[in-house]
Amino acid sequence: MDGRFPEIAEQLLLIERELRLLGLWDEVSPSAEALSSQEPFSVDTLDFEQWLQWIFLPRMKLILEQDLPLPNASGIQEMAEMVFASRDMQGRDRQLQVLLKEFDQLIVATR
């Protein structure tokens, strides 16, 4: 098992918690068609927070549960910056961006 797994698991829980606190957590899943997008971050079918909830978090949890290799890089925080810059979140997204940056840093950390 990769030594980063416990920290990454904790980070995923913090990201989920923050999405819920911000009211960005959906109770109903998007359609199968929307979830099957081939575009990066499913930009053509999902909002960024939907991608986090329905694609990113489940995939990362699967990687951890099945002891699969972690990705070599992550640019999720950069995408979050672009997305939230176009929204008026009045700084409420700041903590989510911090958590995503910490996730990115865990991914590129030495194993």
What's this entry about, in short?
By secondary structure, this protein is mainly α. It is built from five helices and no strands.
Comma- or semicolon-separated keywords:
111 residues, mainly alpha, de novo design (two linked rop proteins), 0% strand, globular
Structure in words:
This protein has 111 residues and is mainly α. It has a single domain, classed as de novo design (two linked rop proteins), CATH 1.20.1440.40. The chain has helices at 5-21, 32-35, 48-65, 76-85, 94-108. The protein is globular. The protein starts with a helix and ends with a helix.
Topology:
Blueprint: H1 5-21, H2 32-35, H3 48-65, H4 76-85, H5 94-108
Order of helix and strand elements from N to C terminus:
HHHHH
Percent strand: under 5%
Count helical runs. 5
CATH class type:
Mainly Alpha
> What is the end-to-end distance?
10 Å
> Which fold does the CATH topology refer to?
de novo design (two linked rop proteins)
Structural class: mainly alpha
CATH-level-2 architecture: Up-down Bundle
Q: What low-confidence regions span 5 or more consecutive residues with pLDDT below 50? A: none
Task: Report the CATH superfamily.
Answer: YqcC-like
Number of domains: 1
* Number of DSSP-assigned strands: 0
Average pLDDT figure? 93
Q: Helicity level, as a percent range?
A: 55-70%
- Shape estimate: globular
